[in-house]
Amino acid sequence: MDTANPSPFIVEPSALLSRIGSEQAPWLLDVRRPAAYEQSPCRLAAALRCSPDQLAAFAALHAPREVVVYCVHGHQVSLEAVRQLRHAGWPAFQLAGGMEGGESGVDSADDMARWRSHPLPRMKRREDLGVDGLKPSRWVSSELPNTDQLSCSWLIRRWIDPLARFWWVPPEQLHAEAQRLGATIFASDEATPSPQIQLRNLEALRSAFGLDGCHISATESPSPSSLKRSASSAGETHE
Length: 239
Prior knowledge:
Order of helices and strands: EHEHEEHEHEHEEHEHEHH
CATH topology of the largest domain: Oxidized Rhodanese, domain 1
Number of strands: 10
Number of helices: 9
């Protein structure tokens, strides 16, 4: 962090870790500079994306809510982003150590050891599936969703994209609607965007985003009622 001008609005990885994937999770916002972002294959799980020069537009587009902002090492980029967001009325916080848990030669060894002892879950960047963190991703599956479909929508909202939108359509219309909506088919026998991509169930979805190692405890597992709330609040609709 910028030790010469530290921010009073800092969140330690240890404090954030227990909230990721939960109903009480803050938004995560990736503000790494474009060059650093393009070199990385991952974002933190469920993180949205905003280039530093687009923060004003981001703040104007969404209603203020708790957000934890991170850059590569938790230095000036995320510090300035927090300042901008707080000026716009957002309860924004800086992630201590950033995505990489600090920077050798800049941050103290003790700080880096503490930050890196609580690694935060990451997900693969999957722009090919419409998940770019810049806009709500779009997903479509068969109408009258079953538990597997609802579990997938729950996983998407909690671990992949908190702004995701869902459509439930007649099975025979899946491909036509996916093309019309620019949506990805999931939790269906038809959920095969390409021979290399299979999104037919929860395990396949986790694998596609590199979330296999993310621990979802029994207390975090979705109940049927929470699944329905998650799908509904995600924008369950027909267009």
